[in-house]
Amino acid sequence: MDRKKVTIDGNEAAAYVAYNTNEVIAIYPITPSSNMGEWCDAWAAVNKKNIWGMIPSVSELQSEGGASGSVHGALQTGALTTTFTASQGLLLMIPNMFKIAGELTSTVFHVSARSIAAAALSIFGDHSDVMATRSTGFALLSSNSVQEVMDFALIAQAATLESRIPFIHFFDGFRTSHEVMKIEELTKEDMKAMMDDELIIAHRNRGLTPDRPVMRGTAQNPDVYFQGRETVNPFYNACPAIVQKQMDKFAKLTGRQYNLFDYVGAPDAEKIIIMMGSGSEAAEETVNYLTSKGEKVGLLKVRLYRPFSLEYFIKALPKTTKSIAVLDRTKEPGSGGEPLYLDVVNAISEKYMAGELQFAFPKIIGGRYGLSSKEFTPAMVKSVFDNLSKEKPKAHFTLGIIEDVTNTSLEFDPHFSVESDETFRGKFYGLGADGTVGANKNSIKIIGEGTDYFAQGYFVYDSKKSGSTTVSHLRFGPKEIKSTYLINKPRFVACHQQVFLEQMDMLKDASEGATFLLNTKIDKEHVWDSLPEKVQTDLINKKMKFFIIDAYKVGEATGMGARINTIMQTCFFAISEIFPQATAISMIKDSIKKTYGAKGDKIVQMNFDAVDKTVANLFEVTIPNKVTSKMQLQPAVSGNAPDFVKEVTARIIAGEGDLLPVSKMPIDGTFPLTTTRWEKRNIALEVPVWDMETCIQCNKCVMVCPHATIRAKIFDEKDLAGAPATFKSTKFKSKDYGEGLYYSLQVAVEDCTGCGLCVDVCPAKNKKETKLKAINMAEQIPIREQERANWDFFFNIPDLDRKVVAVSKVKDSQFLEPLFEFSGACSGCGETPYVKLVSQLFGDRTIIANATGCSSIYGGNLPTTPWASNKDGRGPAWSNSLFEDNAEFGYGFRLAIDNHNLQAKDLLKRFASEVGNDLVDALINATQKDEAEIYEQRERVSALKNKLDDMLKAGANGKSSDLKNLLSLADYLVKKSVWIMGGDGWAYDIGYGGLDHVIASGKNVNILVLDTEVYSNTGGQCSKSTPRAAVAKFAAAGKPGAKKDLGLMAMSYGTVYVAKVAMGANDQHTLRAFLEAEAYDGPSLIIAYSHCIAHGINMGTAMQNQKAAVDSGHWPLFRYHPDLAAEGKNPFKLDSKGLKIPFKDYAYMETRYKMLTKSHPAEAAVLIKEAQEDVIRKWKDYERFAAYEPEKSA
Amino acid sequence: MDITTTYLGLKLKSPIVSSAGPLSEKISNIREMEDAGAGAVVLYSIFEEQIEHEQLELDYHTSAHTESFAEATTYLPEPFEFKLGPDEYLNHIRKAKEAVDIPIIASLNGKSIGGWTDYAKKMEQAGADALELNIYLLPTDAKKSGSEIEKTYIDIVKAVKSTVKIPFAVKMHPFFSSTSYMATELSNAGASGLVMFNRFYQPDIDLETLDVVPNVILSTPMAMRLPLRWIAMLYGKVNADLAATSGIYSAEDVLKMVMAGAKVTQMLSSLLKFGIGHIADVTTNLKSWMEEKEYESIEQMRGSMSYMNVDDPAKFERANYMKVLNSYK
């Protein structure tokens, strides 16, 4: 049968089979598996049917724990049920997995395997998560490639039904889940043929029903539990043969034969690698290369890892086997070896002891590779075989890193390559915002689906959410592609942004004779002189071809703007000559129609125009024969940076993180603060420029700046000594801090992301030219140098003394130094202004528990992190535990701090006479209610420490232990502010149970919910905060239910300070709420409206959306203060006017609402009406609360 | 008594027609208009530029932040199909046609010649009985002469004429150097009717925020004087039906316009102010007046007070205008 060829990624391949062969699908977002759930939700939203002509029921749960619970329930009620997950999500499913397996229930969980958070989180791929499920009783089936993902998804589904053993079908996160590959698509008939109706009926009949009632899930005792656990043995014994049977059946259908253990290589191989996952593809490629050179090497690919069949395993090994290296993509600290290695040792040993080993007991060594998607290349495979060749091979080795602490690493030759020249290899460097990756995904589809070539695309993103760099790796050619690693000898290099040439050595690995395509505004006569010396050298020495295009010019002429994707794609096809030009253009246009057709004729035409105008603007540049440039690559950080930043951080920034040895890494995940200030990213084309004549010195721009790049200071005239000529300052308009002060507003132009929020919120307009404000956007490059000097000067001007700042006013509060700066958050982020505000108001005494999500990523993703310390060395101490436990994590902080404080006070009392009663009384009874009092307490603590030091030096009279304890605890006599922050996915969904418990505890913690109304970090999935009528991932047909009122739920305790704020609607209200929350001696909850790119809005004017949200009544501003109730007053204050505009006038400012009117118009009309009713109903409730008069009610 | 009229070749039961505006966005309103006695309904205008803008906006916001970050390669679901372009409007035409028996006149504001003809064709296919071309070209380019701009109007009309078989009217504005000339030219180019006149958004300045703010003010009865004059002037001189719009509030206004020469009178501001039921009141008053004055039909009075039929046509002309001013002194 001729099957359709599709060019898709691993997640889509798995979802395709899962959707078609299941009835119930429970989903929850977690990278890199989220896309599988997204596909299923999107298909269900357009009523796509499964192989039985039904639309599966696709439901999002509040956590992976919840998803697995629902899966368990649906399975126990007889439905074919599946789910998708990874990493911590899989760990949350483990309790249910034991149940599901214990009850011999057929299901397949599709897992895009990912690292588990240990000392650090990583979203990338390895087998740590899957390995943690080994004891659950699930079968573990490993796919190595996108084709195998589709195939094994079906084989697993068939095998689970026959064996009754539940399956995890896993494949490597990112490397396989996100790799785009041309594969053969299974047909519905294929799937039907593999799904046995009798077995499905048997599964259904095992379901609970009152028509045939049984009990399942009893509690058992020592007398019988053990025996009950042993009943399943025959099923596990039978499982491998069943899987093989299904593989054989599948082979008959499709011609693709798989085995439980697939051996490739020399039939008489002596050295064998055993492994599973995508790395096997690279190993197979290498083994094929080495055997072609006559080497006796082989590879055993493990497909069915659990149940591990000793019989099938041993039969799969060549009888000539002499040595074996087992590669595990996981780490089990403290174990005698990693799991696959131990299984192999066990298998060989058992077979040896049974006398069934057909070769002498081999050398067996194990090693770790590829953690967190670390590259695994043919060079590394070769180094493993080389190691096996040694008389005493290194055991328990590591691959791909420099492990210089316990010296486990194997060396490899980075230049070793097995790639064929028949395969095209291209690398494309782009900006996230310019559409490069999208264009390359399209290109690979065009090639994959338009030719007989094999095709592969893989995409690498940096860790920033704004101004990120992307590198696309494209391979295609007549030979099957098994290169599951990045391209290192490209024959085509495209640079979509010329600025990259100053930052990275882009042509260093280009092949001789390779082609280089550059997007530049400089014409072909002058472009050569604009290139760095290294680029010129490589172009000449490698005899490269050089093409240029001014994609911006074409983009501007055709309405494409900065999205140059189609233009660069056309250049690629025009230069690479894969097809005749006319054919290529026709294929690109067909692809444009497919990609953009749904978005309207205008978009299609715009892209067509871009294609048509591109070729005329594409030029080949004749490469001169000598280097003329003196321009060098820019250093990653300045020479003034601290040692750690220079030795570690800078190398990560420079893309050399892979080369950092283990000895340079912190041993327990502890990193220094204040590192973003050394990474000058220069990503903004335009930056704000201050007009001091128009400025009214309100500091609103400072408050709103998401990246803390606009700062205000007031200072004495003498501080201006030595100011650069272009440094701007003016008389401070207020006399609140004394006479004759100067005011300056300075922009860190190299750190600015150019969002423009500052300009939008500026209330001052130029009287002569009203389009200008007191702060206006201007091109960055012409002012970069001068503003760098101005920033340096400004930075060294002393900050206003915190003790005297009137923090309760917006303007004054913004003179406080932010201790959260230059994060990698999205340009115009709606969360970071709140986070920064916490750092300004309380940063020097704050400890932060940060739920996993956007805020933990822009807050804690390497290479540089935005949390900073002040000149005294104090600043926010920050940690991220998990997604689900953040409130509890922060609660633990509070318990420990309170305990330290009590201990310190207790010890202090014991030393009252020696320390001095007055000092002790003052230390114990200090109220510390404002900055001045906190300062005084710090002074007292300092005095105490001096005394304690003196006492210790004087001999301590046998009390040195207590003195040392007091010395270590003394700082806890100063107030500490615990902040627990995270997004709505955490607070409303996965972490709600913990949050609820913590606010009920009465403990003094401050909870900040950065409410974007979706799971922003994983791509905008629906949460219980998502409003009715909004579209989100997992709610592609619009959220049908109302938004949860978290504030109201918290207020029901009566002991929780609760505030709902929106900075864009009322910044003073926001400030007041933060101060009140922190001052309240009990739990506080602030729910902060945070606009987000997932809303589909203009981020530069997003504060207007916040205002509209409040004006419509969707986001009522309020404060609930329990202390007022104690005073006999109404604790609830409704602080916004509300219902000033219809809900739809706000909602339809945002694509998340508006797109529903275009995708599901009828449903949108109903939902928007219901959403308006929600708003009115809620508003009336709040009005009633606000009108409550306790005195009258009493 | 016969208050039927013809307009654009369509037989209408009344000269009172609902003008293009937001009321016609709801099918229930259109039903109510028919029930109240409207002769026809001109649907709200569809703007090609707005449709394009919506496409660009949707494309921008669904693709702006995509493929930039490993954890989230997109931020909004990508529906497999969007109902974009004029589809929604065309469906509205279909639904309106199903809902009522009176003629449905679709109203279009194009951007390009291609847009005008493409959308006009689609509206015809969707079942519109006639079209109203809402040609709105604000001449802000100082390098373009009046005649160049006028030619654009004519080209649009010719292009639409060559595309559709259903009749159409052009909604004119009163700012041509020669209204009579343009009326004639538009008629010659293929317009079966001329609607007098289009009212434009008039921006205002907010002194508090120093912003320019769009400002829409409902027309007042005084606004009818301008179309009244031009309908009276053009009646019998152009080969097109004349429709009056702006400031039609009462039966008296309808009568005056018909006497000046209008085939129909279009109402919007008064309906927004008094409700759709106002059509019924005006109709009742119209009939009462006719009965009282013993008019047999609308046709009987049509044009009776036009330039060509009044005893002193000069009163419609400029000299007379000077005299009116003087009368205030």
Describe the structure.
The complex is a heterodimer of chains A (1194) and B (329). With 1194 residues, chain A is of the alpha/beta class. Chain A has 43 helices and 37 strands. In chain A, the strands form 7 sheets. In chain A, strands 1-8-17-18-16-19-20-21-22 form a 9-stranded mixed beta sheet. The longest helix of chain A has 27 residues, at 1161-1187. The mean pLDDT of chain A is 96. By secondary structure, chain B is of the alpha/beta class. Helix content of chain B is 41%, strand content 16%. Chain B contains 12 helices and 12 strands. In chain B, the strands form 3 sheets. Chain B has an 8-stranded parallel beta barrel, surrounded by 7 helices. A two-stranded antiparallel ribbon of chain B has the order 1-2. A two-stranded antiparallel ribbon of chain B has the order 9-10. In chain B, a hairpin with a 4-residue loop joins strand 9 (204-206) and strand 10 (211-213). The radius of gyration of chain B is 22 Å and the shape is globular. Classes of the chains: A alpha/beta (1194), B alpha/beta (329). The interface between A and B is large, with 64 and 35 residues.
